[in-house]
Amino acid sequence: MPSSLQPASITHVSLGDRSYDIHVTSGAAGDFAERVTRAVPDLTHAVIVSDEAVLSDWAAPLAKDIADRGIRVSSLSIPSGESSKSIAQFDRLMQWMLSENCDRRSVLIAVGGGVIGDLAGFAAASFTRGIRFVQVPTTLLAMVDSSVGGKTGINLPGAKNMVGAFWQPSLVLADTDVLGTLPERSFLSGLAEVVKYGVIDDAPFFGWLEANATKLVARDQDALRHAISASCQSKASVVGADERETSGRRAILNYGHTFAHAIEATAGYGTLLHGEAVSIGMQMAARLAIALKLCDAGLLDRQTRLLEACQLPVTLASADVDAMLPVMMKDKKVAHGKLRFVLPTKIGHVKLVDEVDESLVRDAIHNCA
Amino acid sequence: MPSSLQPASITHVSLGDRSYDIHVTSGAAGDFAERVTRAVPDLTHAVIVSDEAVLSDWAAPLAKDIADRGIRVSSLSIPSGESSKSIAQFDRLMQWMLSENCDRRSVLIAVGGGVIGDLAGFAAASFTRGIRFVQVPTTLLAMVDSSVGGKTGINLPGAKNMVGAFWQPSLVLADTDVLGTLPERSFLSGLAEVVKYGVIDDAPFFGWLEANATKLVARDQDALRHAISASCQSKASVVGADERETSGRRAILNYGHTFAHAIEATAGYGTLLHGEAVSIGMQMAARLAIALKLCDAGLLDRQTRLLEACQLPVTLASADVDAMLPVMMKDKKVAHGKLRFVLPTKIGHVKLVDEVDESLVRDAIHNCA
Ligand SMILES: NC(=O)c1ccc[n+]([C@@H]2O[C@H](COP(=O)([O-])OP(=O)(O)OC[C@H]3O[C@@H](n4cnc5c(N)ncnc54)[C@H](O)[C@@H]3O)[C@@H](O)[C@H]2O)c1
Ligand SMILES: NC(=O)c1ccc[n+]([C@@H]2O[C@H](COP(=O)([O-])OP(=O)(O)OC[C@H]3O[C@@H](n4cnc5c(N)ncnc54)[C@H](O)[C@@H]3O)[C@@H](O)[C@H]2O)c1
Ligand SMILES: [Zn+2]
Ligand SMILES: [Zn+2]
């Protein structure tokens, strides 16, 4: 890559003819147009779909930079928030794309957090049965999780992510500068998924996180780039081994999530952010692993200290076991009526455990209260 | 296959791990439940989506046969007609599937013509990012064309098939008995696509059609089974070479269609059925090929006689050249502002021709008036 572009840490996601790169940079948003035109051949029409919260700071400048290259650009902003992952917004987006004369060669660029990436990704998968797309994640969660791996989709009333497609992007551009405007709680919440990769897949990274948590919380750019790249590498390797969630490997990404979904569903909507629930959920999972003698208490100690250093909650005084259990039973990870969990055996390793006794699950929740 | 099943002519669609069989039978609808359970492993929940016009004759008996095997069945009927290929019906179908507790292991069975196959196929592609599905085509067009090849989708206001997915079925079950209730015009219209396969891909089949057109028009079961199987074989081989319409090979299926779409758009909605427009469109294409010295006049003669024997229109007195041309220019098959056509060189062979002079196109349309 010529020197005109700032250096980027590049993670390659290896999926045959659906392979792509994730560029992690700092202060290089001015390069995004150039990076897009290099990675996406024959770009003649860019369709920029952005979260209204990042429209003026990030989507509008990108639109201008692309237009300055003589490429036709259409832009639409979407209201912020989970409720935009709806069939109504999907319909609106499709009709707008038609009115903008999009065709099979148009390229959709999603600028936003997981909400915009999921909605716009499904739009890209479906418009004329699929057009190319680029992810420009603007939340930490989107950078380390939702923009990588090709899961796209929208919600139905009462059920998340029920409608969607597996559709891989052609490029992911994550710049740490973009996180500058992200509210503190949202930022810290994203760190929970970062810690998750350390526990499930990458012991050296877990050690690095222990040494650098303070820098991360202070949003140190070098530390952030490393954390985002390492997270993307873990996710990319898991996704490369199980692109469409058929072999079971992809399930390890759900560490802490069976508990977290039950916490989110019962704690009252909006009480906890997703990453906060994941943080507590990983604590419950670690306790369950100890009870099952899968790992020693030292793992829980290290995980607790790291999550606390990331200013994430590690207990939930209000946890309502009786409300949580039925939710967990309905979770997709239940096999034939028996609870199934992703549980750590040591830092960097997890296994899938079926047929866990309900009483042990209760204890794990109680002990996090 | 054990003798308990009536014999079927089976066409294999070869698409790697997305391969599947098309069974063409007569009087074997009573076997459909058995065929589905054999082809689709671990069937525990069947979701039957049918055109209301075939609900009582074909969908309800199939639902009963499957339920009699101890398999849970959910059934929904969809209003007949192109307007059901909408986001509104898609939304309704998704919410209904959720309310029926569908999950990733559910199998969707589409019973109907191209409208139901396209809508239900897109629903199958999208529900939890993709569930298995089976096509039970009930129109001739669906048996020889829309149920084979994995194109699914819905319309946007003013634009057909703009939203969808490539999603292959696990099995296609076409029984000629089901055509018994199909109105005459719809049946004959489907024959236009059958003739198309002869011209573009299969000269011996074209000869067979010339010898058997009378039997086909009389809906002779043996003749119909052969015609449907041969058509599916042609389509399967084209689709196998170009599953996602990227290499250009799949474009040959559009023989006659550039003209046909312009006819349909300008003749007034509902004046002509799709196959009738394709019949006239193939005549225009053959005339254009002659003018370009790609083939001799004998091809047009044979094609004309065969289409007439199938009781299909071969001229259009009201053809409005000035209205048709702008529509053709907007067609997806226009390359860089120049008209692109699929044109015959001899029976069984076509080629893609770019940069055709507008005056020759005008003549071809005029000469079919
Ligand atoms: N596709 C996947 O694999 C995957 C994985 C995990 C989560 N998800 C989905 O991701 C979604 C959550 O993503 P999220 O946490 O990014 O939420 P989000 O997209 O709703 O963003 C959170 C909030 O931050 C605002 N925001 C975004 N970027 C900003 C910035 N740079 N500065 C200031 N404000 C900004 C948004 O307007 C929003 O209010 C959920 O819908 C979840 O289902 C998808
Ligand atoms: N997916 C593809 O590759 C592909 C290819 C070609 C066409 N198509 C689509 O297919 C659709 C047209 O399909 P179609 O021609 O089957 O139309 P259709 O599905 O609308 O069926 C035509 C009519 O026949 C009725 N009908 C269906 N089966 C019947 C039966 N056995 N007896 C009596 N009535 C019956 C229907 O209710 C309807 O009124 C269009 O939307 C077109 O875009 C898709
Ligand atoms: Zn998560
Ligand atoms: Zn057609």
What's this model, at a glance?
2 copies of one chain form a homodimer. Chain A is α/β, with parallel strands linked by helices. Chain A contains 13 helices and 11 strands.
Write the layout of secondary structure elements.
Two copies of one chain form a homodimer.
Chain A: E1 9-13, E2 20-25, H1 32-39, E3 45-51, H2 55-67, E4 72-78, H3 87-99, E5 107-112, H4 114-126, E6 132-137, H5 140-146, E7 151-156, E8 159-166, E9 171-175, H6 184-201, H7 203-217, H8 221-241, H9 257-266, H10 274-291, H11 297-309, H12 321-330, E10 341-346, E11 349-353, H13 358-366
Parallel strand pairs in A: 2-9, 3-4, 3-5, 5-6, 6-9
Antiparallel strand pairs in A: 1-2, 7-8, 10-11
Helix pairs in contact in A: 1-2, 3-4, 5-6, 5-8, 6-7, 6-8, 6-10, 7-8, 7-11, 9-10, 9-12, 10-11, 10-13
The site of one nicotinamide-adenine-dinucleotide (NAD) has 27 residues of chain B, from α4, α5 and β8.
